[in-house]
């Protein structure tokens, strides 16, 4: 299956894509207000019909109803079809009061009827400095 790509920008800082397969990390302060944009690149022959963005403590997936699991909070949900190409989404979130070294994972979940797919995963890690 073709891969949908997620490229984040957090508080104006573009992702430093890693060669080891891990998602990019961002150092933040406890209680900081984050302004995020994510470019989503949908390959040819994929048509996304539901897209979710959220925050996880380390687990993610898709439940039996198609809703994502492990996202708390859900930052955004888009139900308009996304054809092939690049699409940019924006959302905001205030980091809760966390101790230094604590982290959260920014996650996605998407589904497509053609090809039939339901996919979720991480696209960035937020680490409290």
Tell me briefly what this model is.
The protein has about 130 residues and is an all-beta fold. The protein has no helices and eleven strands.
In the CATH hierarchy, what is the architecture at level 2?
A: Sandwich
- Which of globular, elongated, flat, extended, rod-shaped describes the shape? globular
The whole-number mean of residue pLDDT values reads 93
Question: Unreliable stretches, pLDDT < 50, 5 or more residues?
Answer: none
Helix/sheet category? mainly beta
CATH topology: Immunoglobulin-like
**Proportion of helical residues:** under 10%
**Major pleated sheet:** 5 strands, mixed
CATH class: Mainly Beta
* Tally of alpha and pi helices: 0
Distance between the termini: 37 Å
Task: Please indicate the count of domains.
Answer: 1
Beta fraction = over 45%
Strand order of the largest sheet: 3-11-10-5-8
Helix-strand pattern: EEEEEEEEEEE
CATH homologous superfamily caption? Immunoglobulins
Number of E-type strands: 11
User: Could you tell me the radius of gyration in angstroms?
Assistant: 14 Å
Map the helices and strands:
Blueprint: E1 5-10, E2 13-14, E3 25-28, E4 33-42, E5 50-56, E6 61-62, E7 68-69, E8 74-78, E9 85-94, E10 103-113, E11 116-128
Parallel strand pairs: 3-11
Antiparallel strand pairs: 1-2, 1-4, 4-9, 5-8, 5-10, 6-7, 10-11
Molecular structure report:
It contains no helices and 11 strands. With 129 residues, it is an all-beta fold. It has one domain: Immunoglobulins (Immunoglobulin-like, Sandwich).
Quick tags:
129 residues; mainly beta; Immunoglobulin-like; 5-stranded mixed beta sheet; 4-stranded antiparallel beta sheet; 11 strands; 0% helix; globular
